[in-house]
Amino acid sequence: MSAVPAKSPVAEALPPPLVVSGVGKSYGEDEGEPNEVIGDISFSLASGEIVSLVGPSGCGKTTLLNLLSGLTPPTRGSVLWHGRPLRGVPKGVGYMLQKDLLLPWRTTLRNVTLGLELTALSQGEREKKAHSILNKVGLGSFHDYYPSALSGGMRQRAALARTLVTEPEVILLDEPFAALDFQTKLILESDMAKLVRSEGRSVLMITHDVEEAVSLSDRVIVLTHRPSRIKAIHEIHLDADRGDMMAVRDSPHFTGYVREIWSQLDVRMGNR
Length: 272
Prior knowledge:
With 272 residues, the protein is of the alpha/beta class. The protein has helices at 9-13, 61-68, 108-112, 123-136, 152-164, 182-198, 210-216, 245-249, 254-264, and strands at 18-27, 35-45, 50-54, 76-81, 84-85, 93-96, 170-174, 202-206, 219-223, 228-235. Helix 5 (152-164) packs parallel to helix 6 (182-198).
């Protein structure tokens, strides 16, 4: 019998990429009438894990993502990236929004290389990396197209390529596929899942789509109405290829997860 290799003590000692402890956010405290958006939220994101945050409209999901990315300071609590307190925008983090925000005067290739222009890479090295990631997202032959010539799905692929080309360890996603038709959405979800899982990247995504959350995620965190807190955390175990969104939706337990999470959302009319 062959011996099981011992785990590296260094690897075991590494902290999770993201640890959130008692984070809250209020506005207007100086005026004496604080508007509390985030109540008290604590969770962590492990290396190579995909976690989705779902909650009622207006519960502060985007505000929370902005707190975790360093764009907005929390009112209380702490955010640790790799065991260190958050100070500004952390390194090794990519942020992809619902809007692609492609620069119309740049080609697809030049939009993707934008994030690399602050690095020490030469132009040739930047373009080589950009071509490689464009091929992975199916846009290799569209590298010289301008955004106006791309469909909505192709523009989101370009935005995904721009996010991935810098090789972030953690990717923050703010409803990146919400504006797409169902077919295009499934294809992009599958492509994104395959890419990030094959490369061991961590993903934290906010979404209103419970089926999307269940199909993509290892865990789904359900938030309450504002001031938002964590209502439930679901470990997602599906007997299917997690890179195939149709196979995942055909998994025997998929509908059960979706129904349970939906029942916990406490969606109220007039709360949008």
